[in-house]
Structure formats: C-alpha cells, structure tokens
Amino acid sequence: MIAANNRKMPGNAIRDFYRCPEEFLNFQLAGELSPGGGYFTLGGNTTCYGRTVGGLHQPQMKAKLRDAGASISIENEQVTLPFDPDEIIINLRRELYPSGQLTAWDKVLKRIYYWFRPLTSHSLRVRIKRLRAGDWQEIQFPCWPVDTTVENICERLLLLSLQAKGLDYIPFVWFWPAGARGCVSMTHDVENAAGRDFCAQLLDIDESHGIKASFQIVPEERYAVTPEYLKSIRDRGFEINVHDLNHDGQLFDDRE
Length: 256
Hints:
Elements: H1 12-18, E1 27-29, E2 38-42, E3 46-50, E4 73-75, E5 78-81, H2 85-93, H3 104-116, H4 122-132, H5 149-165, E6 187-190, H6 193-208, E7 214-217, H7 227-234, E8 239-242
Parallel strand pairs: 1-5, 6-7, 7-8
Antiparallel strand pairs: 2-3, 4-5
C-alpha cells in the first residue's frame, strides 16, 4: 500500500519537521513515480520504502539495496529527487510498508496470544513480548527499538538544500516553547471495564500533578463506551485516542 502523491513540490514533511521558511527548501521530482513501491536506501545506510523514478527500488527487503541518493542532483538552487520524501515519511509513520515478515505459523501464534491475552497477567505479557523481540538486532527495517529513518531522511535532504542554496545555516524555530529541551507525553491504556471505571480517579490524579494525558480507548467489544464517558474526559481538557478497535492484533490483517 503506497501513499498517494499528486504534489508538484514535495518536501512538506521536512518543512513541518524543521519549521523552516519555505523558500529554503526547493525540491522537485526527477520524473514520474513507479506505480508500485519497494525498498531502497538513501546514502546506503538509511532504508526506505516507497515508489521511485526509474525503478530504483526492490520489491523485497534484500541484503543489497540500490542507493537512490546516488541519483539526487542539484542545479539552479533546486534539489531533484528520484522519490517523494513526503510519501516515504508517511509510509514509515503509518506503517504502510508490507508486513510480510510473519509466517503462517507466526499468524496462528499471534491469534492464539490475543485470544488468551485478557486471561493473562501483566508480568506474563511482558515475558512473552521479550521472547518475541529476542531477535530485534536482526530486524533490518524498521530499526528496533528506536527507528531514526525519518530523522535521517530530513537531515540528509536539509543538508542538500543548504548546499543547493550555497548556505551554511538557515533560520530555525526551536521545537519547544520557552527554551524547553523536550516534553513528556502521558497516555493511559484503557483495556477493560475496570480500567474505564477507574478513569474518573485517574483524571483527578493527573490534574493534581498538572498533567493532561491521553486516554487510549478500545471502542468496540471490550466494554461499553458511552458519549457521557467520552465527554467526561474531554470536558476536563484531556485527549481521547483509539487504541485499536478491539485490541486483538488483527486490525490490519486484511490490509491490501
């Protein structure tokens, strides 16, 4: 599944990432993108997934992928790309790359796990997750536990933009207000009826510490979600997210 692209001037994701003035980023596509997508690298060390100009990608993850960075050109203060960086970044953020790493046996085990999950303890679930992630060092894409593909793409293309403009630096608006170095995002997974019923107390606890958290709701079969319940959270300035429709691990199993 590939994100659609009808933009004449790609690069919105990079502008949003760095909050820099538009005139400092000037990208264009080298030609028509392929109808289907695949894997390639940027600079030989950053794996990407998406469509390319001239079929630079491979349909499957392989040890040796083609470097699309070698086909990037700079002329008249413009960076010409053989891929759409917005599409590549969206594909990664929304996990639109093929999830073909699961075998038929893996899928059976996954269904069994989510069937028994409501009956298991938190400590047992942690052990199972650690066992499942035991080979994380062998996973090529995306990197686990922390993937920096988006950061690598944005940094590489920003440097190319500076080179195209003949600049050493550009105006930069800091990510966080008042000179803060970062932020903390608080979320609560509401996985069953007991958790839902405890939310009123949890709202009080959060507010006593000045925290406005996000409540991750499972809206379909696990417990009743009424408009009054959702309103009680929103009216106090908290956020509501959907934490999978049933939290059974099957939300995207039938995705094309």
